[in-house]
Amino acid sequence: MIFSRLAVLTSLAFIFLYLAPTFAWTQSWATYEDSSKGISFQAPTNVVISRGSDFSTLFASVEGVSISVSKRKVNNPRKTVKNYKLVGRKGATGETYETDDFLVRRLNEYVNDEIYIALYVGLKKDYFTIAVSGQKDNPTMDRFLKTIRLGGVYLFPGGLPGHLGAGEPVIFDKLPISPEVEAALKRPNVTGLKPKFEILTSDWPGELHKFSRHLIVLSKPRPGYTDEARRMNIQGTIRANVEFLKNGNIGNITVDRSADYGLALNVVKAIRGIKFIPAQINGVPADVTRTIHYTFSIY
Question: Among the four 12, 64, 78, 258, which has the fewest Cβ within 10 Å?
């Protein structure tokens, strides 16, 4: 569905919870924007920054909510967003809305009382991805979403002004890479682990609210096709449950046994190369298991 600018600011009001002005925020927040001023938003001051040759990403966890905002270099941002296929778990919903200045596609995934929201944003010159997850009734998620502005225009209705103690904007794509990111990227790949092959049923992590910092995946290598899979025209998504250990290493890997065996082995090899920062509970690193998806398509 395509919306006018006015529709973007009015038709989504039902999505958001009322933000009580008396809510006690336990962390200080800052206003962030990118160097070209295409996007601005508010997030906690305690953030993790990752950067590569073609991207800059800010990660934050606060009040049981996980936030990430990434700026990436692409040739045609609006076309990239337009061509992106929204794929989610059963029951997921998708929306597309645009103005003269931006095109946004949104994916909403719900399980019980938790929600994952992904936004794919194309401006005339800039491309951003935004992800936020947590409990649906958590006002912190609402606060973050209502501070997002694209080209100076609030993306969602009831936009929160910048006088909430957030101060002057911080240019997030100019911030230095966080030391823990550098340390994680230097960790050697795990070898020697034998994967399990079982039927996987649920792939929702659950209990997101209990983490003081959510798992941060910094890099996720792509598995290659096998010659046999190409010859047999095998396509689809392979799921694997992966244990992300508190020491920064990959633990047990369980692949859905319905997957093509050759492609599954390539998936396992790719998973062993994932770099991440462990989740935390009450500020202490913790083991977590998450489901990783790899989609294979022959064009």
Answer: 258
d(CA 60, CA 47): 5
Q: Which residue has the tokens 């792509």?
A: 222
CA atoms within 13 Å, Cβ hemisphere of 157: 13
Residue that is written with structure tokens 């095109």 in the block:
103
Q: Exposed/middle/buried for 22, CB within 10 Å: 0-12, 13-18, 19+?
A: exposed
Q: CA torsion 170→173→178→181, rounded to 10°? A: 150
DSSP letter string, the chain: ----HHHHHHTTGGGSPP--TT----S-EEEEE-TTSSEEEEEES--EEEE-SSEEEEEEEETTEEEEEEEE--S-HHHHHHH-----STT-EEEEEE-SSEEEEEEEEEETTEEEEEEEEEESS-EEEEEEEEETT-HHHHHHHHT-EETTEESSSSPPPS-SS--SPEEGGGSPPPHHHHHHHHSPPP-SPPPEEE---------GGG-SB--EEEE-PPPPPPHHHHHTT--EEEEEEEEE-TTS-EEEEEEETTS-HHHHHHHHHHHTT-EEE-EEETTEEE-EEEEEEEEE---
pLDDT in tens, 241-252: 999 999 999 999
Distance of CA 15 to the CA centre of its chain: 19
Determine how many CB atoms are found less than 10 A away from the CB of residue 110.
Answer: 16
pTM here? 0.84
Per DSSP, what are the bridge partners of residue 61?
Answer: 66
Best CA proximity match to 1, nearest among 13, 11, 15: 11
